[in-house]
Structures are given as C-alpha cells and as structure tokens.
Amino acid sequence: MKKLAVVAIGGNAMNRPGEKPTAENMFKNIRVTASYLADMIEMDYDIIITHGNGPQVGNLLLQQDIAKNTIPPFPMDVLGAMTQGYLGYMIVQELKNVLKERKIERDVAAVVTQIVVDKNDPGFQNPTKPVGPFYNEEDAKKMMEEKGWIFKEDAGRGWRRVVPSPIPLDAIEKNTIKDLIENDVIVVAGGGGGIPVIIDENGDVKGVEAVIDKDRASALLAKILNADEFIILTAVEKVYLNFNKPNQKALDTITIAEAEKYIEEGHFAKGSMLPKIESCISFVKDSGKPALITDMEKLKDALEGKTGTKIIP
C-alpha cells in the first residue's frame, strides 16, 4: 500500500538567492525540484506538495508599489491567491513533464487553498511578519496614515510593512483534496501557507490581511488529510544544535520530548528552523506518525533512513 506524505518545499526552491526572479529561472528551478519529488513517487509514495511563496509575494508587493498610482494595490489574501495560482501551474507542469519522461502516468492538480484562522487570534493585535520592500521612515509613516498599514523599523535596513501571522485551524478545500488523493491524483495545495480567511458571524468566508506560516499550514494539512509522514525540505541536510558554531551537532532521530527540550535551550532561530521544528512536533503529537526535515537533494537517502532529521513520538 502506498504511503501518503505531505511534502513542504520552500519559496527558494523556485527563486534561488541572488538569481534574477524570471519565469524562465523559476521553471528551471522547479524542474529540478520536480525530479526529487518524482523519486518519491517511484518509491511508492502518494504526495501532497505544499510550497512557500515569500519571495514571490515580496516581488508582487514591489510591483504593486511601483504601479500604485496607476493600478490600486490588491490586499494580501488576493496576492496569496495569485502566487498559489502561478506557482501551482509551474509545479504541476514541470512535475507532469518529469513523470512523462519516466513513463509514469499520473494526473497532477493544483488546488487554490483557503486556510481558516480565528478572527480573534492574538496575532492580529501584534503583527510581526515582515513583507515587501524596505522604505524610508517618511514614506512608511505616510502609508501608515493613508492605508492604516503597520510598519516597523528593521535592524537599521529601513522600514517594512508587518502583517499578522495567525495560527492555521482548518482548510476549506480539505474534502476536495481528499477526493483527488483517493482518485490517484498528485495534489499541490496550501501554497504560501494558504490564503488566510475567517468565517464571519453569518458563516461567510472572508479573506484577511495576514500571512500564515507555510510549515504550520503544511503540518495542519498533513494532520487533517491523515498523512503517514510529514516532510519539510529545506537548505540543510539535518537539523543542528549550536548551528554554525564550532561545536555544532547534527541530529538524526529525536523524540518530541528531546525536540521540546532543544527549543527551550534556544537552539533554533525564530525566522528559520524554529517554526519547522514546532510544526513537526505538532504533526507528530497529533498523529503519532513521524516527521522528517532534510535537504531536497538528500531526500531519497533520507527516506531510506540514511540521513535527515526524523522526529518521532
């Protein structure tokens, strides 16, 4: 019987640091990513692919800023939908092409996914997620007055808009995704953490100005879709204690209790490894099934138990 895995790939798997963010470069990078995902399919996995969109949303915000006097800027939920659409198209196309080369007949589909958050989530009172370009103080304060946006000074580099990052609670399209999986379709879903929405007092779904952490949303999807494994692909082969220090130590297999102890000891940075570890803990706690963190290039070896960091109950 096939295993079902939710595989989370970062936005940098589409746009490499320092590389021009052209459509051609994105297709080229996604083709490479697709080859590693195809390895999993050949290993008898069913997969749900989730992806980041940080660099892509940042680029859209910059384009909107340049054109703001000609075309009114769109809100964050619409930008999330835009990136889900075009990144989903690219991933579906390149994965389908790779599978065709390997003579594997599978349908691949992208589902624009809305993720429910609580309108009373404390994150809305304390926006912390930086998005978009840097501004000088004068322009930032002007936009705060005109648009009601919140800006914060960012480590001497300038002022950046910050938006809430609420906790994901449910996926509106979960039953559609389940139906596709049951019909042997490889699914791309929950891109960029999903489009953040709330359910209002009338039961209507409404988008909100927020960004959901991609790894937290991916862990949620893995839980509600009853995945056998949750996998986060990142820029390192294993998780490390004392990362980038002379005494750094690679982690192979760790329990939830060990992972929580390492968090308390401050081993994982807030902006990088911490949300990944917390998302894995959340999945493993609720499902009793394992989570894996590794580098995309080492994925096959990690699935065979040769590398990567595995978190178990």
How does this model look, in words?
By secondary structure, this protein is of the alpha/beta class. 38% of the residues lie in helices and 24% in strands. It has 9 helices and 17 strands. It has helices at residues 23-42, 54-66, 76-101, 137-147, 174-182, 214-224, 256-264, 273-287, 299-303; strands at residues 3-9, 45-51, 107-111, 114-116, 129-135, 150-153, 159-163, 170-171, 185-189, 195-199, 205-207, 229-234, 240-241, 249-250, 253-255, 291-295, 309-312. The strands form 4 sheets. Strands 3-9-2-1-12-16-17-15 form an 8-stranded mixed sheet, sandwiched between helices. It has a 4-stranded mixed sheet with strand order 8-4-10-11. α6 (214-224) runs parallel beside α8 and α7 (256-264) runs antiparallel to α8 (273-287). It starts with a strand and ends with a strand. The mean pLDDT is 93. Keywords: Kinase, Transferase. One of its GO terms (molecular function) is carbamate kinase activity. Residues 3-295 form the Aspartate/glutamate/uridylate kinase domain.
Rg result: 19 Å
Number of helices: 9
Main sheet makeup: 8 strands, mixed
> Unreliable stretches, pLDDT < 50, 5 or more residues?
none
- Report, as a whole number of angstroms, the end-to-end distance: 23 Å
Counting DSSP E segments of at least 2 residues, the number of strands comes to: 17
Would you tell me the structural class of the helices and strands? alpha/beta
